[in-house]
Amino acid sequence: MRRRTVPAGAPAASATAAGTARAAVPGPSVTSKGTTELDAQAVYFVSYDGLVNNNSFQKNGLLTHKGHQYAAWYTASRHAVVARRTLGSATWSTVTLPHRLKADDSHNVISLGVSATDGRLHLNMDSHSDGFFYVKSAAGLLDDPAGTAWTPSVFGAVQTTLDGLALTPQFTYPQFVATPEGRLQLSYRAGISGNGRNALAEYDGARWTALGEWTSATGTYTSEHGSSTARNMYLHGIDYDTRGRLHALFTWREQNAAVMCSGGGITNHDTGYVWSDDRGRTWRDDAGTVVGTTGGSDRVFVGDGGLVVDPLGPDHSLMNQESQTTDSAGRPHAVISYVPGRFGQCTTDHVADRTAHGRAFHLRKTASGGWRKTEIPVPLASSQRTKLVLDRYDNAYAVLPYGRIAAASQASGYTDWTLLYDGGGLNAFGEVVIDETRIRADNVLSFLYQEKSAGTTPSPLHVADFALPA
Hints:
Keywords: Signal
Largest sheet: 5 strands, antiparallel
Protein name: BNR repeat-containing protein
Signal peptide: 1-23
Organism: Streptomyces cinerochromogenes
Number of strands: 34
Number of helices: 2
Low-confidence stretches: 1-20
Strand content: 35-45%
Shape: globular
Distance between the termini: 20 Å
């Protein structure tokens, strides 16, 4: 493991109007703080080219709250496990829950959420277009971790509803999102791939409420090859910025393969963007036009103008559910990946073509209000996805498949992407799970990864930690 620093693109110091020296903003760097082992024998199987213990759409498989870090996974016995440690500690304390993974399906991840209003930890588990399993801790567990025993008794019974609230019989992609005032929202898909709708539920510290669906599967999309009349929106993320605005970047997946040049590709097309200033009740496009109301009859759909911020047809194996974040000014950033046109205008095998020619791109909204896209000059060498985070100086870090870390400085306008860490020695399978909350807590980039294995032989699960610029 090694440390490298990308130049910030600014002088060592600058003079203020008063004539005093001011240190330059540092560029990105990573310094390894080592790895810890969560499980020597975590469940292992490959499905949909991924692993159930670290899939890009988990939000969150790893999170930090009030000086402690929490992780969740399935062990070799297929039991769900949740663990915690004090930040900086090499020792994790684990609790095995009374739920076992029901299928060899990498969609059936565990997602964690925190409701700050009552100090509970929430887990949603084991779903792919069917029912889910839900557990929440005792109130106050996260408020006083040092004074609360970490035992199975602090978790409630496994439920198949949200405390009695039934959502949909076709439930997938649970993502917990904490609101600025401490409520907890659950984003999920109702329906199936190519014919689904995004929806929200909300927990206020006393009960769950279904807010309803906010996207539609209807409308007609026509490419140069054919048309489709059903689809679903795949989110790259759903996040509140520091000012309370909710952001979501996404791609559409069409149901009808006739829109593609080849049946071996993926029907994903375009990168779109919507935002909400009323906690996800009303959705607006990039220009501010209302395009949907959660729980209402007018929902975001493919025919709404103003949604697309980066157009791309369905012939380049554009990946869904990659990554997004927001900077200190509240502007959205995303990583998307696909096979650029210089390698051909028709992918015929999305796994092979993305592995051979796939590239990740940094897409962001600029201070002037436009959108800018920059290619990250590191071949994916994988069909898998990349995660994106920003440090306290708004430098960008892309954690590529196999745990490689590339970065670019804010000072350069994110044009100086450079590989800082090559993942050597990790033996990571592919995708990693980022702790989106830890950077704000102690300026450390943490990610969860699982070692490569064969067949269904269990393998070690780890957390790697990297210090970012102080």
